[in-house]
Amino acid sequence: MSNSAISYSKNRIRTLYLAGALFLCLSAAAGILLGSSVLTVAEIRQAFAEGFSSSAGARVFAFVRLPRTAASLVCGAALAVSGAVIQGVLANPLASPSIIGVNAGAGLAVTLCTALGIYGGWRLSLASFFGAFAAVMLVSLGARKWGASRGTVILIGVAMNSLLGAVSDTIVTFVPDVGVMSNDFKVGEFSAVTYPKLIPAVILIAVTLLFLLTLHHELDVLTLGEENAGGLGMNTNLMRAVFLMLAALLAGCAVSLAGLLSFVGLIVPHAVRRLAGSQSVHLLGLCALYGAAFVCLCDTVARTAFSPYEIPVGIIMALLGAPFFVFILVKGKGGHSRD
Which residues are within 8 A (CB) of 121 and not within 5 positions of it... i.e. 6 or more apart? Predict the structure, then answer.
C-alpha cells in the first residue's frame, strides 16, 4: 500500500471519529433538551448550582432526561459493538443480537428475575448476561455441529427467538404481575429507566467495551477463519467463547435497561464497516460512537415526533431495520471486507 493510501485511510478514520463525536454530542444534547417540555440551558445550569430538586425543570433534567439519555447512549453503544463482534465471530454479516436470539435469551432472564421479585441492580444485569450467553452459545454450537450455512444460522436464530419468546409469554401468563414483559418491553423503550437499573448496567458495559478494545488483535485474527487463526497459534474455541461471552454481556445489559431493541446491532456495524473497513480497533470504537448517537437520536424522535403522544423507540428501530435487513438478505451485500 502506498504512503498516500495509508495517509488517506488515516485521514478518513480521523474524520469518522470526529464526525461520530459531533453526532454523539448533538444527539445527547437533543435527548436532554427536547421532549414534552423543552428544557433550557439555564434550567440545567440552575439544577447543578441549586440542586436537582430546586425547580420542576431541574427535576425533569435529573430524574427523567438524564437517566433516559444516558441509557440510550450506553445501550446503543453496547448493541452496536455486540453486533459487530457476533458478525465477526460467526462470519455472518446477517447476525445481530436481535436476530439470532441473544436479546430473547436476555429477555427471558429478565422475565424470570421479575417473576422472582428482582427489578434492578447487579442481579438483573448479570442474569440478563447469562440468558444472552446461553442463547448465543446454543446457536453457535448448533451451527458448528450441523455445519450450517449462513442462511441456516439465521433460521436457527429465528427459531430460538420464537422458542424463548414463547417461554417468556408462558411465564407472564402464570405470573400476570410480571409487567416488565409489557408491549413496550418487547418492542424496546427507555421510559422506565431508573438509576438503580442504570448504574450497574453502565459499569458492566463500560468495562466490557474497554476489555474488548484490548482484544482487537485477537478478533482480527479470529475473523480470518478458523484454519488461518489456528495456524497462527490461536486457540479458536476458547477465543470464540470469550468473544461471544463479551458480546452477550453487552447485549444482556442493554436488554435489562431497554427491553428487546432490534436491528441496532445490524445497521450500525454494516454502515461503519463500509466506511471504515473491518480493522477491529476502529470498527469497535466507531460502532460504539455511532451506535450510541443513533439510538439516542431515535429515542428523541420517538418522544417528540408525535407529541403529545410518545411511541416506544423500538418501533422506530423496526421501521428502519426491517427494510435494511431485507435489502442485505436479497442483495447479498454487507459481507466483511478484508483491509
Answer: 196, 197, 200
* Grid cell of 74 as nine digits: 450506553
Residue 145's CATH number: 1.10.3470.10
In the numeric block, the cell 446454543 is attached to 138
Decide if 91 is inside a domain.
Answer: yes
The answer to whether the beta carbons of residues 302 and 313 sit under 8 Å apart is yes
Q: What is the pTM of this model?
A: 0.87
Measured in residues, the chain has a length of 339
For the four alpha carbons of 255, 260, 263 and 266, in that order, the dihedral sign comes to positive
For residues 65 and 21, what is the distance between their CA atoms, to the nearest angstrom? 20
Alpha-carbon distance 62 to 40, whole Å? 13
The pLDDT value recorded for residue 89 is 86
Q: Read off the C-alpha cell for 251.
A: 447485549
Ramachandran sector of residue 238 (left: φ over 0; alpha: ψ -120 to 50; beta: rest): alpha
pLDDT score, position 150: 61
Dist. CA 329–CA 332, nearest whole Å = 5
258-280 pLDDT per residue, tens: 888 888 998 999 999 989 988 99
Query: What does the alpha-carbon distance between residue 20 and residue 273 come to, in Å, rounded to a whole number?
Result: 14
Cβ–Cβ under 8 Å, residues 198 and 257: yes
CA distances for 183 relative to 127, 260, 312, 318, angstroms: 21, 10, 9, 14
- Residue 338 in this model has a pLDDT that exceeds 50: no
Residue 1 lies in a domain: no
Please give the single-letter amino acid code of residue 268: V
| Widest pairwise Cα distance in the chain | 65
